[in-house]
């Protein structure tokens, strides 16, 4: 579950309308949503992001509406994890439900700049900034949450559970 990539850095109170503009909510197609992820906040994001990259942000990341489109768009764009000083609770839960790893670690956010080479292991809660030569430890995701994220979200996880049911 560990991933390595480039850090994208954003500030406080990034709301779900900034993560995926409302004009694209007529679809739930992940590829279409990914093409417009962060379009109004960072027009270069969709073209610049690569699989394994990570978003680092300030406080209250994902505030606003309860739409699951936001974490779906981010994950489909290639973001392997989001590290924030804090999350809006509904975004945090929607991220787990859709399979996007999220970690709260204010120190890692403070020490990370856009473009830094980072490695994140959500199961262990370890965030390594290779550019700065620093390692941070966040509260790791609980094992059952790691299972949900590894399955690709809550619906695939439940499907797997049902397959093993008597």
Give a verbal description of the structure:
The protein has a single domain, classed as Aconitase, domain 4 (Alpha-Beta Barrel), CATH 3.20.19. It is 35% helix and 19% strand. It contains 8 helices and 7 strands. Strands 4-3-2-1-5-6-7 form a 7-stranded mixed beta sheet. It starts with a strand and ends with a helix. The model has no long low-confidence stretch (mean pLDDT 95).
Explain the layout of strands and helices.
Elements: E1 3-9, H1 16-19, H2 30-35, H3 45-48, E2 54-57, H4 69-77, E3 81-84, H5 89-98, E4 102-104, H6 106-111, E5 117-121, E6 126-129, E7 134-137, H7 143-151, H8 154-163
Parallel strand pairs: 1-2, 2-3, 3-4
Antiparallel strand pairs: 1-5, 5-6, 6-7
Helix pairs in contact: 7-8
